[in-house]
Amino acid sequence: MSTVVAQPHFMFGLRSGVTNNVCFCDEQTVVFPSGNNCVCYNNVQKNQKFIPGSDRSRGMTALAISANRRYLAVSECGDRATITVFDLQHEQGRKRKVLTAGDVQVQEFGCMAFSPDSKYLIGQTSGPDWVLIFWLWEKHKVLAMVTTTTSNNPITQVSFNPYNNMQLCVSGSGVFKPFRYAEGTLRQSSFPKVESVNFLCHTWVTEERVIAGTDTGRLLVFESGDLRREISLSSEVMQEVTDRSEHGAGSLRRRFPPPSSLKELEDPVEGDSSAPRVTAILAFSRGFMCSMGPGTVYLFEKTKEDSYRKIKDILIPAELCGNEMNPTEYQEIHSMCISPAQETLVISTDGGQMYAVSLSSVEKSKEEQLHFEFLSQSFHSKSITGLSICIRKPLIATSSLDRSVRIWNYETKELELYKEFQEEAHSVALHPTGLFMLVGFSDKLRLMNLLIDDIRTFKEFTVRSCRECAFSHGGHMFAAVSGNVIHIYSTTSFENILNLKGHNGKVRGIEWSQDDSRLVSCGMDGAVYEWNTWTGKRESECVLNSCSYTGVAFSSDYKTIVAVGTDLTLKEIQDCQVLREVPADDVAHNAVTTSRTGRVVFTGTSSGTIRAVKYPLPMQKDWIMYQAHCAPVTKMAITFDEQFLLTVSEDGCLLMSKIVDKEGRGLKTNKQIIHTEEILVTKSDLEEKNQNMMELKMRLEELQMENEYQLRLKDITYNEKIKELSDKFSQQIKDLEAAQQALKTEMEKQEREHHDRSAQVTENHSKEVTDLETSYSQKLIVEHERFIDLQQKCQRIQENYEERLKDAAESKSRALEELTELYETKLRDKTEILAQVRTRWRAEFKETIKQMEENEKRTIHDIQTKYEQKLNAEKETNLSLKGQTDIMAQKFYSLQRQIDDRGADINKLKQERQRLLGLIRSMESDIEDLKRKISGLERTNQDKDKTIASLKKKNMELEKLKFVLDFQLNELKNKIEPQQDDISEMKERIQQVFLSLFVEDGLEEELVNLDKSNTHLKLSVSDLKLKLRTREKEMHKEMQKMKDLETQLQRLKSDLHDCVGVIQEPKKLKECVKMIHARYVQQTDVVSAPADHLQPNTAFCRQREHLEKTVTSLKTRLEKSAEEHEKTYVKIMKENVTLITEINELRKELRSVRSQAKEYKAQLIVSKKSRQSRPSSEEGPKKEPSHEETLIDSLLICLSSSQMVNNKTLYSNSKVNLQIKIHNQSIYYF
């Protein structure tokens, strides 16, 4: 594996599509998803920790943090969605559990929540099932599952009651369902009618109260699961929200409707789709807060009347360098979280930004307008298209489809500059000094100055749709891509120096060499070109039509090129040839970059992962893979000090990874990089700032003087006020002392009066108590007597009730006996019927069991025989394999002996190293000559391959035609055979009856001759085909020999290239030469080493002479076969003419015979009529047919036979014509 690794160090970006994508894990640390990681960002120390996602996931969908801030749940979608629970108290975020939905096929969890005691977890799946799953997550146990909604009503949020583990709430479009877990199931506790209300969020305020926000800007209060009321806002608040909505862009222009009654809430709401939406809501100790409208958070406080009033609104500020078409203050807030001490509020928006505000400042500044501030810095909100670095400053430039360009500092990890434009930025390039920048747009390319606080356009170039641009290492030139053309401009004169044309598809990557004399480019057409930037000519090229290249880079020594594309391989190219290929998995590489130390190559894939491959490239799959992004990587770069690997992706995130070895040390470079601190400032800005400073100084002096004067005046006034107050308070003290003395005397008087009154009250109270005791004793005696009477009455009633109970029990027992007798009789009848049925079915069942047992025995016997045969076959194969292993072992021992012999020969060859170096140089020159000759032979072989391929195609067509004709011929033969038998019989009768009319003309003999000639021609054609196949086999053998030679040459070149790489190290060079000698030089070649360089030429000449002889022999054979075919063609044409004349004569005779047959038919009809007119007796003997009837029958048979003969001749004629056509086509093809 590679000894160099890349560790995630810092990440800029936020994934806005994740539910609940920002959480506090302690007072200073915020967790948010970025790329394919969860980032723990410390806002005080400004550092990050990473929790990587799983390997096979397609991205995160939701986050949830436990109430004790210890566990983090991360939902990831895929073929089988999972929820991973991490322990945040562990340094690396240790993985605790991985939860699944069990047997339910789930692709995505839309939202999740932990219980208050952090023991339970709920997860809501997405459509079409919408299943809510309740886990005891530490034991990986699913406690309950329930379907919450249909596919038409999606769920937006689930939550636990913070005061009860078993109570939870689900809200969504037309859905508000409180559930309670009891007895292993989730049951809905109430059923509010909210089918027409679209709930976007909700929060628990008390144990029974839930406040929910809708897409129409309403805040609805539910208590015990039932809708109670709506929180109505004042007219001023409604006007503020409406004004902010009207000033928003596009879809954010909304109208806030007035509050309606509870009855109207349950009806469908019409006409308020433009109202601001309540997208997030959060409870805190004094009330709750919600996001209502674009970029606004309202704070509500609980009043004494158990209602809520608005106390403050917090706004997202407008950015100074923002774009008017996409203002930041009109972003929609997606998620909110509050710190554990409720000191800080953090929000995330749909624009991929995070803002924070201190809640302690809310109490201090009650009248001032509060604004959010960036939690760290501003991020990209869409796909990042460009990435560039410079050598003189620690700056990173990125461009994005969100119409912004940002300058980051990778040392301080801050955003230095930020600029938004009216159109999308497709590419970016930093000048080596870090003072200038190129930005490519759809209509032009702009050269910009990086000022102290702004990015300003300096020069515009007419380069349309510039997707790639790059400054040279010296900074005096830059290259810009427009479609398939590369334009090179001078940075000083802004002239178009060169236009590099050669690509047939769009150019996807360019890179300059170290001395700026060469430029390498790759494109969608599968071409990698190396250009000379002084002449504009191509120095080398490598074209693969099956691959569309997406990234290219020079190696550390700038001698080879590393390229990636859609064919799932990493290629190393040198001198127009692919030296090595590293195959990938099912994921394609999108970007590539190489370290300047030459130890590692980094690639970015379409799944967002980063791979570190050691250099020189290995032949097999050997790399280290890291989880970085959740979308395809678009660009990669390594800083000039070899400290950081920078990657950007379509997910809008920039990742900085620290490059270290396996021991944790950074890479050492020979170059010392010195960063400068100079900045650009325009003269007008500097003068304006100096003027402002002068004015501020003067203003400061004036304020100081005025402040001193005001302080003196205040001292005088305050001294006077102190004197007045001291006199006033001393007089008040005297008055208070006199009043105190008067109050003491009055208090003593009142104490005496109170003592007298209390004595009188105690006497009265004792008298009243004695009177009450006597009266209540008499009442008790009366009540006791009454109680005794009631008790006796109760006993009598009880005795009566017991007698009635005995009677009822006796009657019940009698009725029960009668019923038992009746049902026992019925039961006997049923048992008899059942016994009969059982006996019948038992017999049938036994028969079926016997049949099934017999069938099973047969099948078992068949299976046994089958598997015995298989076992015998496996034993035989096993024996054969054992024999093969013995043979292989013998071969291994013989090869081991050969290896030992080779080792002895290698020891002898140590002295010949210098001589072999000279031999290698001479062989290189010979290889170049052979390359030229081989290229010429390849062209000739390609032409011959084309002709052979065309001949093969024509041969295939002929074979198809032959197959069709053979099929038709067989069908016709099958039809002719019975007809020929009839013809032979008819011919005998015709010869006996009409010897005078027809004479045998010898047609059959000619047909026989024609068949013989046809068979002879078929044999000749088959012989020629066999000869052609043998020639093709010979050609294939020669081509295979050529390919083997080419592969051997390529291997030799690659090995020589490796030797040249270690030419400064004698030991390694010696080992490489030994390896080459052992691989390519045979034992017999050791003695005759000086003359070995002549052998390839002689072998090539022999092969050429042999091929020329074979070609001449084939030509002579072709000429002879053509002459023979011409002769046979002339002969067949003559025979065809004679056959046609004979057919015409036969047709004439046929017509005459048909006319005679008609005359005989007429005579026969007349004779039949005359016979019918004569009387004939039934008992008389039967008459024999007359002479005329036999004559007519024989004529009809003759007519049919002549037709058959005619058809046969026509068939033979058509067959001959087809053979002539086939023969002509074969001659034409030859």
UniProtKB/TrEMBL annotation:
<feature type="coiled-coil region">
    <location>
        <begin position="1104"/>
        <end position="1163"/>
    </location>
</feature>
<feature type="domain" description="EML-like second beta-propeller">
    <location>
        <begin position="385"/>
        <end position="655"/>
    </location>
</feature>
<dbReference type="InterPro" id="IPR036322">
    <property type="entry name" value="WD40_repeat_dom_sf"/>
</dbReference>
<feature type="region of interest" description="Disordered">
    <location>
        <begin position="1164"/>
        <end position="1189"/>
    </location>
</feature>
<dbReference type="InterPro" id="IPR015943">
    <property type="entry name" value="WD40/YVTN_repeat-like_dom_sf"/>
</dbReference>
<dbReference type="Pfam" id="PF23414">
    <property type="entry name" value="Beta-prop_EML_2"/>
</dbReference>
<dbReference type="InterPro" id="IPR052993">
    <property type="entry name" value="CFA-57"/>
</dbReference>
<feature type="region of interest" description="Disordered">
    <location>
        <begin position="240"/>
        <end position="271"/>
    </location>
</feature>
<feature type="region of interest" description="Disordered">
    <location>
        <begin position="744"/>
        <end position="770"/>
    </location>
</feature>
<keyword id="KW-0677">Repeat</keyword>
<feature type="coiled-coil region">
    <location>
        <begin position="1028"/>
        <end position="1055"/>
    </location>
</feature>
<feature type="coiled-coil region">
    <location>
        <begin position="906"/>
        <end position="989"/>
    </location>
</feature>
<feature type="repeat" description="WD">
    <location>
        <begin position="377"/>
        <end position="418"/>
    </location>
</feature>
<keyword id="KW-0175">Coiled coil</keyword>
<dbReference type="InterPro" id="IPR011047">
    <property type="entry name" value="Quinoprotein_ADH-like_sf"/>
</dbReference>
<feature type="compositionally biased region" description="Basic and acidic residues">
    <location>
        <begin position="1176"/>
        <end position="1189"/>
    </location>
</feature>
<dbReference type="InterPro" id="IPR055442">
    <property type="entry name" value="Beta-prop_EML-like_2nd"/>
</dbReference>
<keyword id="KW-0853">WD repeat</keyword>
<feature type="compositionally biased region" description="Basic and acidic residues">
    <location>
        <begin position="745"/>
        <end position="770"/>
    </location>
</feature>
<dbReference type="InterPro" id="IPR001680">
    <property type="entry name" value="WD40_rpt"/>
</dbReference>
<protein>
    <submittedName>
        <fullName>Cilia and flagella associated protein 57</fullName>
    </submittedName>
</protein>
<feature type="repeat" description="WD">
    <location>
        <begin position="500"/>
        <end position="541"/>
    </location>
</feature>
